[in-house]
Amino acid sequence: MAKENVKLLSMWASPFCMRVKVALAEKGISYEEILENDIMNGKTELLLKSNPVHKQVPVLLHDDKPIIESTNIVTYIDDFWAAKPLLPPCAYEKSRARFWADYIDRKVHPAGRAIWSANGDKVVTAKKDFLDILMYLDGTLGDKDYFNGDTFGFVDILLIGLTSWFPAYEKYGDFKVAAWITRSWARETVSESLTSPEKITNFVGMMRKMYGLE
């Protein structure tokens, strides 16, 4: 592993932190993870100083310079550590990868949250919206092993970080998803970077009780 002055301000349940951890693992970059364990009740001075605008994780500190927002961080990682590129070499394919990255950021997590944070008929509507989103992703994946073809890359990383939450969506929305998840979780860089779905599902159950949904 390369020795670098890299720190990641993180929170164990955050899917956005998980995607950064996968990107660092794919690149073989060693780093120090600094956990924000009580982020709902208080944030550390380091986090507030490093991300004064949004005041949220993840934050990548590279040579003490902060890089914020997970997709931006993954892009930075790919730009700075050029070996083992995450984006395809072709300009057209790069543009497609960025389009689907934006689609994932705008659609997948908000739609999933709408499932676990709802009750009654709202769950049915949220589930349909989520499945429609997954159908588009399934269509672009097609028969390929990964979104980049044979190579696990940029779009896979942005989506796989969210999948640790999928069993919670499944529990509260009553549906199943996909072979690509199994294939991606089989990668050591993924399985060692992501929080277990069981732990996330328990966390979501706790939040539902906290919000009076159960």
Question: Secondary-structure blueprint of this entry?
Answer:
Elements: E1 6-10, H1 15-27, E2 32-35, H2 45-50, E3 59-62, E4 65-68, H3 70-80, H4 91-116, H5 121-141, H6 154-160, H7 166-173, H8 179-185, H9 188-191, H10 197-210
Parallel strand pairs: 1-2
Antiparallel strand pairs: 1-3, 3-4
Helix pairs in contact: 1-3, 1-6, 4-5, 4-6, 4-7, 7-10
Taking the sheet with the most strands, its summary is: 4 strands, mixed
Figure out the total of helices.
10
Strand order of the largest sheet: 2-1-3-4
Terminal Cα span? 45 Å
> How many beta strands in the DSSP annotation?
4
According to CATH, what is the class of the largest domain? Answer: Mainly Alpha
The percent of residues in helical segments reads: 40-55%
Oligomerization:
single chain
Walkthrough of the structure:
The protein is an alpha+beta fold. It folds into two domains: 6-80, Glutaredoxin (3-Layer(aba) Sandwich), CATH 3.40.30.10; 91-210, Glutathione S-transferase Yfyf (Class Pi), Chain A, domain 2 (Up-down Bundle). It contains ten helices and four strands. The chain has helices spanning 15-27, 45-50, 70-80, 91-116, 121-141, 154-160, 166-173, 179-185, 188-191, 197-210, and strands at 6-10, 32-35, 59-62, 65-68. Strands 2-1-3-4 form a four-stranded mixed sheet, with helices on one face. A hairpin with a 2-residue loop joins strand 3 (59-62) and strand 4. The mean pLDDT is 88.
Short key terms for the protein model shown above:
214 residues, alpha+beta, Glutaredoxin, Glutathione S-transferase Yfyf (Class Pi), Chain A, domain 2, 2 domains, 4-stranded mixed β-sheet, 10 helices, 55% helix, globular
